[in-house]
Write a structure and sequence with these properties.
Blueprint lengths: L1 E6 L5 E8 L3 E2 L7 E7 L4 E7 L2 H4 L2 H21 L11 E5 L6 E5 L4 E2 L10 H18 L2 E3 L7 E3 L4 E3 L5 E3 L15 H5 L7 H16 L16 H6 L14 H8 L3 H8 L6 H16 L18 E2 L6 E2 L6 E4 L5 E3 L8 H9 L2 E3 L10 E3 H4 L5 E7 L5 H13 L9 E4 L2 H16 L17 E9 L5 E10 H6 L1 H6 L5 E6 L1 H4 L6 H7 L9 H9 L10 E6 L11 H5 L9 H18 L6 H5 L3 E5 L23 H9 L8 H7 L10 H6 L7
């Protein structure tokens, strides 16, 4: 007897005593183990699918269990309390951010079809109808169950139950090899093309053929004797086509078996409750496009004449001064540096790259130093992270910079170099390496000036045109913004902002209650105080603020089974920047926050004209006893920065930086209202 704590499908926590039997591998080729159990608090029979600690150390094994949990929970949300729920395993609970992650299901219904040699002629039509209903339901959710075989289809003499949810892939994603012949279609076996719902049709046809004849069909074509089985030939016409495009859809086959059944299934699926919120996003973008352009702001920004740039600390102009250079000694103390005696150009360049200059532009400002390369490569780009101390900004920014140094910007035509090699090496040693090794980072200390915007790191970014620009990253803690006006003064010269949203603070979803209890947090309906403080201080000369911004729903692993976060967090890494995809993600995140959190959490998007929204997870999971069980696995941490770089013109995008941020006006926006009312076109997003 042991005590098990887990999260239920409703998001609530449950603790129950449980007794387990012996475990076995569910599939010899897969890492998951399975064992029967009894939840003694309700005398409920269950099945546990789990990973041992050794298997869970493999990220690929955890990804399989995550995929299975995501599918089971999605089907539960859509089908619970409908007649179709029994077609799939019923999930009881899950615990995935632990050393030995697991899922709990209600006991299976029926036995695997592989134990049946030949199914009776009276059972075959019901079996085929139920199987196609299950496929039709999966198709409606954009899911494709790979690996359908007689081992994963259960039959209790009256209806089907379809298991093997670890093999689900999303329609439209690249295929990967999965499953066994002859049940996996030829394209899937070879890992060619894109996942298609008609992949399941091949697999189902092979299962039906085997149950009707007692033998497996060929691997790459229709059985030669199919015509001799009249019912099969009528039902499965085209299902054995080698190419998915030539097969019927699950809905088409279902209607052959049970006319009208596909339509009844479509009517059963709940309506999309996020549509009004997505439409509100479209309207907000339209208003931004129609707003008059802002006039110029007073005061210096960016690069000045004579090589002057804006100091990111005191906001005064500064230029290279060879008499004010310093470097660090063995004790990391600044010591004056004299370069007048260095005649070798290569040595001088190397020394200057590691040097800093003391800024004396404002004698009343605390002592501060600027890396020399920051002063010699044109107009710097200042990026500031904004949010409360608990939002995960430090982990997000650490992983963002780590992804850059791993070459994450190369697909966008950008290259990087450290501004100060010693400073960068220290950042990697003290921040990146411990996090990647699974250690939870402490809150960011004041790496720059106590009481002011905390400098974190700076890089030299070279764009596709060969132009080099310094990019400096700062961390604005909510507590600093409230406590001191000096951090707010920094905002007058900032170029780009990343607003980090903590889902535990923003979203009153029950699955976040356990995290809130663990961290001592409560939902804040009024939004992040740091957001409002920053927005109120930013310089403004028009209906919208003109600083570039990205909002990030951080710690998204907490919501990795919640739509639409599940869709984006599991998306394949982009290889190019597609403005339509960025707007689609922005629309979905906007809709999620507007629906569950209210407009207060969307204040940055409403106030700033050029603002995109993203989901990201710096760690891929939650900590367990001060460490991340599978190591910190970043997901989509670079996309917000890529968006900002596009808005700043460092990445060329179709339509230009302006169109990337707010979209282009659809045709109906450019015609008289009377004609627009007759238009049936839709907005670009």
């Amino acid at each position: 007897m042991t005590t098990l704590a887990f999260t239920t499908p409703s998001g609530r926590r449950r603790t129950a005593p449980v007794r387990f039997g012996r475990d076995t591998r569910r599939d010899p080729l897969l890492p998951q183990r399975i064992r029967n159990g009894m939840l003694d608090d309700e005398r409920q029979q269950c099945v546990q699918v789990r990973l041992t600690a050794a298997d869970a150390a493999n990220p690929a094994a955890r990804a399989l269990l995550d995929a299975e949990a995501s599918t089971a929970l999605q089907l539960h949300r859509v089908l619970d309390d409908t007649e179709y729920a029994a077609l799939f395993p019923r999930i009881i609970g899950y615990e995935l951010d632990t050393a030995e992650p697991f899922l709990l299901y209600a006991a299976p219904r029926g036995t695997a079809a592989v134990r049946t040699h030949v199914m009776s002629a009276t059972d075959q039509p019901v079996f085929a109808r139920d199987l196609m209903q299950a496929l039709c339901l999966l198709e409606g959710q954009g899911l494709v169950l790979r690996g359908i075989s007689p081992a994963t289809v259960l039959w209790d003499g009256a209806s089907v139950q379809l298991w093997g949810l670890e093999g689900v892939a999303r329609a439209g994603r690249p295929r990967s090899a999965w499953g066994r012949a002859p049940y996996c279609p030829p394209e899937q076996r070879r890992g060619e093309g894109l996942v298609d719902s008609r992949d399941m049709v091949w697999s189902a046809a092979q299962v039906l053929y085997q149950l009707a004849t007692g033998r497996a069909g060929p691997n790459d074509r229709a059985p030669a004797d199919l015509a001799g089985h009249r019912v099969l030939a009528e039902t499965l016409r085209g299902a054995f086509a080698p190419l998915a495009a030539d097969r019927p859809t699950p809905a088409r086959l279902l209607d052959l078996l049970a006319p009208g059944a596909a339509r009844r299934i479509a009517l059963t699926v709940p309506a999309d409750e996020s549509r009004p919120h997505r439409e509100a996003f479209t309207q907000a973008l339209r208003l931004k496009r129609q707003a008059p352009p802002a006039g110029p702001l007073d005061g210096p920004t960016g690069e000045r004449g004579n090589g002057e740039v804006l100091c990111p600390y005191c906001l005064e102009t500064i230029q290279l001064d060879l008499t004010s250079l310093y470097d660090t000694d063995a004790k990391m103390q600044y010591q004056p540096l004299d370069v007048t005696g260095i005649s070798n150009a290569l040595r001088l360049q190397d020394v200057m790259r590691g040097a800093v200059q003391k800024c004396t532009a404002d004698p009343d400002f605390p002592e501060h130093f600027i890396p020399v390369p920051y002063l010699t490569h044109g107009r710097p780009l200042t990026v500031a992270m904004v949010g409360q101390s608990s939002t995960g900004k430090s982990h997000l920014l650490t992983q963002m910079i780590a992804e850059i140094t791993d070459g994450g910007l190369e697909p966008y035509g950008l290259k990087w170099q450290s501004v100060n090699p010693e400073q960068h090496a220290r950042f990697v040693r003290e921040r990146v390496q411990p996090l990647r090794n699974g250690k939870v980072l402490d809150h960011t200390g004041a790496l720059g000036l106590d009481g002011f915007a905390r400098f974190v790191e700076s890089l030299l970014i070279t764009d596709a045109r060969g132009q080099v620009r310094p990019v400096a990253f700062f961390d604005l803690g909510g507590e600093d913004l409230v406590r001191t006006d000096a951090a707010l003064r920094f905002l007058l010269g900032v170029d780009a902002l990343v607003f980090v949203v903590d889902p535990a603070l923003a979203l009153p979803l029950p699955q976040l209650d356990h995290a809130r209890e663990r961290w001592g947090l409560e939902v804040n309906r009024d939004g992040d105080l740091a957001f409002g403080t920053v927005l109120d201080r930013l310089p403004k000369n028009g209906p919208y603020l003109e600083v570039a911004a990205a909002m990030v729903l951080a710690k998204a692993d907490l919501l990795r089974f919640q739509p639409p976060v599940d869709r984006w967090l599991n998306a394949a890494p982009p290889t190019a920047l597609d403005p339509a995809v960025v707007r689609a993600e922005s629309r979905d995140v906007y809709g999620l926050l507007r629906r569950h959190s209210g407009q207060a959490w969307l204040r940055p998007f409403d106030a700033i004209r050029r603002c995109t929204l993203h989901v990201a997870s710096a760690t891929g999971g939650q900590e367990d006893q001060g460490r991340y069980p599978a190591g910190a696995r970043p997901r989509r941490v670079l996309e917000p920065l890529v968006s900002l770089l596009a808005m700043q013109g460092l990445i060329e995008v179709p339509g230009g930086a302006e169109a990337f941020a707010v979209g282009t006006a659809p045709a109906r926006d450019a015609v008289p209202p009377s004609q627009a009312r007759r238009s049936v076109g839709e907005d670009a997003m």
